[in-house]
Inverse folding.
């Protein structure tokens, strides 16, 4: 017989699209629709139900950008439909290709009971199954006119991301709103045909199975009367029963399908819209569970469930019921799916503290899976924090986006900087929004890298990013793919079931050591500088507030502000979400973040001032509070004293700054041509080089503007050497002013007395478009690697491009410092607000560059326009521990207070390699002091911890301040105890007071 494959496949496609799917609703009657357009922000449900409605017809416009319209749908089920399944079909004007990225709605009954969500691929509402006939129908839809920010073409600058510029022209036209008969037999036939057709396309062309499916489909279509699809659907399905019953091969790949709805806590929509997205999704999936007992749904992000409890208690009650039944599964153990590159160590720990505690308190669930499918790379500090939180598994998907190198494993042990290993899975389906299509499952099976050793993978399925979750159509596919020849076997289950199975199946999985660097989205270390500064400042203010409040509570009876600190921490953790802190959200999100950080700073300043007032008492002495873990200027670490600086004066003469330790020469262009380390008798600036050099690059990546910096940006650079003014500022500084394009820069270069560091304060009034601003320091240091601070330690990255893996790290993230060294001499560069860096070497020169600002136009066309301030400190002759010290110093400046007494530290540690990261009172309000330490140098360290209060005992705990199954107890002698830490170990201690 001749090859008629293309002919039959074309026939299948057309019949499916034009006859089968339309026939799912063979009879319908129009409903009566009325609308009320809510003014401004969303209103309570009661207000929407009680509003004054006006008639609206299909085809009429509604919905200005970000507006809310309430639709009232009324009708009556025809008597002739008695005994049949009836649904309301409500099309708000959907584009089926954009689920989660446009208009959505939440349906309520007339009494305010939430029913389910509406979205482009889920536009039905149950009325009766079976209907009695003649019953009235009244439904209310809270519809959100969310604009499609992605645009056409995608990544085009748009005013829609800011309500102030979005306009008020309606975005949508109301589609069909009907009561309709739902024909389950036709629906079943459509899924039979769709699943087999998708499978057929993925089966090898020469496989008999492909032709077996083709002929079965042909026979089914021959049996179908296209003029009477409902009447002939059952007969057509009989021709497909055989091929659907043929079981999968014994060696078929096994897929654990986990219902999911990846919901970005903010991205192309504001936080307030995410609150509603969560409600729509949770209503959807809990309703779906009532009809599908096999369905299991996993949801991460405690913040989102907290929103649900606050704003939609009825839906939250349904969630609690399904959690108790094991159907709705909390996962992730974090407050939000945060970025993991930029949050500080303590903040990343608190993501687990607040996330896991919420799940335990609200649901009695101890989450064991860390669920971060979409974050933009994963810090090498994370495995230890996973283990310290009481979790044991890790899931991500985003690494599949890497542009250069394919990650070699899908199931593996991930080892962090301290040696902790966590069992990790990276789904080979390469999406966290799967539909369970034949293409996706074939891709998962075919791309799985661990064949021969393991044969199982996980697939998160359900509409995501903007939410929506799984649909009944996806569950129909899963049912047909459970055991089908030519396909992987599909089992719906919970993530923990998969991980237990995978761990047993592959106990000797390979080990990946170090960070999971995403070779993509490198611009997120720099975009939206105000958001990044707000995060950094908030983290350090929280450290101060907890430290001084705890010290004051122990010493003076000060009322420790448990509730305020808890609330503020949750605000900061929320804004570490992986599209907020990275700077990849719409303007609305970042403007709100800026206001939130300002409010956080104000409130924390109040807490700090109140605690310091209680500690210092009345008086006129100039008391300096030092929240850093290192002493400075006569002030003890974690304490307060009268500051004493006994050092030679600083001289500024003829462009030379000299404090007796460093001699810095600044030329007429305001650039540093020499930095002499007097004690070491060594020049720090590379021969012929000029440091503190601002460099401007074009910045127009191939896609994903706010996210990406593509390597070719380095091909073109403009050195900003033109200068407006170079002037000496007494007694210890030089000011340099420049202007370029539409922007200006003012820098103050200062040598503090008695310190071997050059401080550089930079203020940029930035009004560029698609430009990238760097600050460069060519150093006379020969090294093939650079150290960069991460949470609770540091990593070394290459300064060369020997391999494709090395070359891909052309832009990297560092926290408070980077450090380069050759044997016997190193230089550190510390910062107070920047994360993006690049470090390269050329023979005897190592150039360290800091990324200051970008100017992408999508999704925020005015990204970072305005004034920004940065502080950097260049520290010649620095060791890694010197870099750690300077990183804390620049981020925790001393606070002056007029008082009458110094403050002894609440705790002190005698080894500079053992760093105090946080001091606070225990969250259980027992009055115990909680201390978090870490080893910072990457070696083994022993230290004595001395308490500044009567100490009854010291015990190690997990991150949540809970005792381990076998907690370590430290013998107390003379008011202190000794600890021994392994490289980069994090240790949480509970100190009981007598």
């Amino acid at each position: 017989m001749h090859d008629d494959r293309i002919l039959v496949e074309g026939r299948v496609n057309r019949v499916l699209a034009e006859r089968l799917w339309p026939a799912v609703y063979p009879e319908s009657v129009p409903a009566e629709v009325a609308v009320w357009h809510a003014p401004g922000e969303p209103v309570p449900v009661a207000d929407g139900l009680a509003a004054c409605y006006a008639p609206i017809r299909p085809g009429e416009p509604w919905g200005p950008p970000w507006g809310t319209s309430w639709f009232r749908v009324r009708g009556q089920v025809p008597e002739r439909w008695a005994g049949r399944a009836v649904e309301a079909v409500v099309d708000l004007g959907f584009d089926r290709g954009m689920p989660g990225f446009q208009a959505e709605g939440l349906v309520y009954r007339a009494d305010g009971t939430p029913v389910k969500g509406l979205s482009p691929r889920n536009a039905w509402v149950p009325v009766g199954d079976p209907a009695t006939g003649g019953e009235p129908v009244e439904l209310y839809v809270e519809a959100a006119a969310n604009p499609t920010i992605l645009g056409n073409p995608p990544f085009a600058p748009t005013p829609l991301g800011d309500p102030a510029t979005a306009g008020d022209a309606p975005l949508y036209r109301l589609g069909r709103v009907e009561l309709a008969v739902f024909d389950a037999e036709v629906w079943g036939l459509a899924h039979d045909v769709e699943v087999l057709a998708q499978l057929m396309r993925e089966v090898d062309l020469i496989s008999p199975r492909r032709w077996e499916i083709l002929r079965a489909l042909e026979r089914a279509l021959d049996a179908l009367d296209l003029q009477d699809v409902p009447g002939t659907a059952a007969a057509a399905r009989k021709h497909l029963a055989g091929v659907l019953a043929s079981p999968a091969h014994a060696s078929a790949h096994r897929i654990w399908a986990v219902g999911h709805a990846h919901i970005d806590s903010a991205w192309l929509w504001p936080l307030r819209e995410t609150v509603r997205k969560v409600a729509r999704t949770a209503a959807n999936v809990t309703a779906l569970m009532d009809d599908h007992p096999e369905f299991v749904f996993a949801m991460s992000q405690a913040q989102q469930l907290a929103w649900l409890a606050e704003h939609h208690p009825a839906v939250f009650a349904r969630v609690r019921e399904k959690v108790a039944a094991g159907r709705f599964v909390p996962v992730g153990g974090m407050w939000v799916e945060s970025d993991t590159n930029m949050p500080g160590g303590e903040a990343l720990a608190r993501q687990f503290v607040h996330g896991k505690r919420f799940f335990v308190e609200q649901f009695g669930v101890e989450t064991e899976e860390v669920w971060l499918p979409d974050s933009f790379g994963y810090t090498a500090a994370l495995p230890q924090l996973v283990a310290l939180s009481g979790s044991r598994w890790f899931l991500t998907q985003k690494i599949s986006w890497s542009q250069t190198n394919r990650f070699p494993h899908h199931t593996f042990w991930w080892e962090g900087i301290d040696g902790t290993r966590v069992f990790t899975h990276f789904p080979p389906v390469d999406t966290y929004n799967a539909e369970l299509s034949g293409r996706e499952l074939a891709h998962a099976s075919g791309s799985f890298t661990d064949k021969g050793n393991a044969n199982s993978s996980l697939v998160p399925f359900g509409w995501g990013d903007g939410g929506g979750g799984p649909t009944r159509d996806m569950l129909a596919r899963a049912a047909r793919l459970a055991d089908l020849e030519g396909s992987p076997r599909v089992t719906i289950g919970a993530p923990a079931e998969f991980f237990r199975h995978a761990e047993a199946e592959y106990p000797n999985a390979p080990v990946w050591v170090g960070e999971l660097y995403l070779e993509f989205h490198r611009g997120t270390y720099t975009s939206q500088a105000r958001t990044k500064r707000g995060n950094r400042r908030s983290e350090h203010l929280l450290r101060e507030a907890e430290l001084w409040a705890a010290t004051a509570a122990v010493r003076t009876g000060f009322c420790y502000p448990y509730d305020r600190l808890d609330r503020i921490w949750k605000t900061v953790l929320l804004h570490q979400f992986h599209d907020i802190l990275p700077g990849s959200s719409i303007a609305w999100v970042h403007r709100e973040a800026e206001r939130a950080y300002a409010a956080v700073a104000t409130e924390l300043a109040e807490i700090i001032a109140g605690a310091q007032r209680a500690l210092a008492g009345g008086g006129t002495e100039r008391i300096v509070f030092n929240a850093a873990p290192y002493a400075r200027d006569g002030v003890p670490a974690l304490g307060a004293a009268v500051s004493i600086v006994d050092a030679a004066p600083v001289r500024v003469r003829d462009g030379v700054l000299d404090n007796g330790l460093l001699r810095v020469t600044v030329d007429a262009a305001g650039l540093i041509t020499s930095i002499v380390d007097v004690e070491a008798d060594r020049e720090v600036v590379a021969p012929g080089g000029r440091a503190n050099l601002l460099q401007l690059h074009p910045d127009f990546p191939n896609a994903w503007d706010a996210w990406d910096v593509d390597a070719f940006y380095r091909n073109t650079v403009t050195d900003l050497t033109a200068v407006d003014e170079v002037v000496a500022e007494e007694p210890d500084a030089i000011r340099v002013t420049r202007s370029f394009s539409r922007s200006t820069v003012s820098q103050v270069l200062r040598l503090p007395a008695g310190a071997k560091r050059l401080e550089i304060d930079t203020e940029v009034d930035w009004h560029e478009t698609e430009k990238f601003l760097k600050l460069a320091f060519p150093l006379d240091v020969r090294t093939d690697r650079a150290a960069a601070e991460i949470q609770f330690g540091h990593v070394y990255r290459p300064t060369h491009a020997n391999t494709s893996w090395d070359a891909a790290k052309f832009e990297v993230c560092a926290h408070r410092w980077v450090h380069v060294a050759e044997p016997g001499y190193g230089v550190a560069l510390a910062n107070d607000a920047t994360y993006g860096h690049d470090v390269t070497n050329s023979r005897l020169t190592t150039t360290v560059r800091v990324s200051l600002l970008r100017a992408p136009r999508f999704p925020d066309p005015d990204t970072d326009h305005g004034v920004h301030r940065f502080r950097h400190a260049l520290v010649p002759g620095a060791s890694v521990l010197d870099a750690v010290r300077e990183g804390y110093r620049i981020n925790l400046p001393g606070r002056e207070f007029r008082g009458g007494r110094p403050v002894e530290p609440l705790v002190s540690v005698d080894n500079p390699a053992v760093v105090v990261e946080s001091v606070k009172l225990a969250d259980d309000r027992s009055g115990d002091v909680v201390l978090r330490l870490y080893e910072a140098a990457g070696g083994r360290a022993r230290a004595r911890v001395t308490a500044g209060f009567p100490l009854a005992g010291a015990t190690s705990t997990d991150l949540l301040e809970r005792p381990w199954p076998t907690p370590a107890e430290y013998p107390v002698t003379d008011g202190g105890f000794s600890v021994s830490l392994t490289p980069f170990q994090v240790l949480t201690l509970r100190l009981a007071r007598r």
Notes: The first helix runs from residue 5 to 23.
